[in-house]
Amino acid sequence: MFTSQATLHRVAYDGSFRIAKSSNKPPKGKAIGSKRRLKAAVRQLDELQQRLAASDRHSLLLVFQAMDAAGKDSTIRAVMQGINPAGCQVYNFKKPTSNELEHDFLWRTSLRMPERGRIGIFNRSHYEEVLIVRVHPEILRNQKLPADSISDSIWTERLESICDQEKHLARNGTVILKFWLNVSHAEQKRRFLRRLDKPEKNWKFAPDDVAERAHWDTYMQAYEEALNATSKPWAPWYAIPADDKPYMRAIVAETITAGLSGLGLEYPAPSDKNRQAFAAARASLMDADG
């Protein structure tokens, strides 16, 4: 079940993905039992995370991108709620700092790639450099780039750089799963109004959020090109319908579980030397008082 549902929303590797044909809502009949499915996937994910840590050969990088109010934070919280916090590293990438601007655009995310045996979660990521920066190219002026590097080809070149880095990471044991939470224009409006109407949710709202809605079509064009250029077998994108949050969370959890299950993770077997040490330790404990 997990693998088939993951494949259902995977962005094709041949550049044929079209946002206009990608639904914001679950396929008919597929949203039934979403909460139960989420719980089942989280239980399995807990066991897989322990095996990932014990084997210490792979790492897992989860990338979440979406328009505002799509549910990135709540999805990360719901999916990772049963996981040992010590096994996860979560980063939220916002406007680059002055120090980050002294480096290439991949530098700040490169510093935060997950260690072997751990799960790294990017809430927004290096993809911001081909999304918001593409929608607002004036941002490039503050990035201290050589004048001759700023041209129409910069977006293609940045996407190539991202692909190269992700392939390098995959070759070295990092499993990369990328999620675009596909919320509709109408649902985003409803969620914004809810944030304004409920005092306890006011802190989530920023006036700039509404201003960005005016660029919706440009964002969709940037997303479509980015997903088509960088959805690869070693770093697939998944376009997850986001208007139904329970379904979205279940599919994300199942996709992660399927990705880790495919590694065939096992607890490492102790060496002969360790077995001898264990036997000596057991004997010592059995002889000890108390």
Textual characterization of the structure:
With 290 residues, the chain is an alpha/beta fold. It has one domain: Rossmann fold (3-Layer(aba) Sandwich). The protein is 45% helix and 11% strand. The chain is built from 11 helices and 5 strands, in the order H-H-E-H-E-H-E-H-H-E-H-H-H-E-H-H. It has helices at residues 2-8, 34-55, 72-79, 107-110, 132-135, 154-171, 185-197, 207-213, 216-230, 245-261, 272-287, and strands at residues 59-66, 88-92, 119-123, 174-182, 237-241. A 5-stranded parallel beta sheet has the order 2-3-1-4-5, with helices on both faces. Strand 2, helix 4 (107-110) and strand 3 form a beta-alpha-beta unit. Helix 1 packs across helix 10 (245-261) and helix 3 (72-79) packs across helix 10. It starts with a helix and ends with a helix. The model has no long low-confidence stretch (mean pLDDT 94).
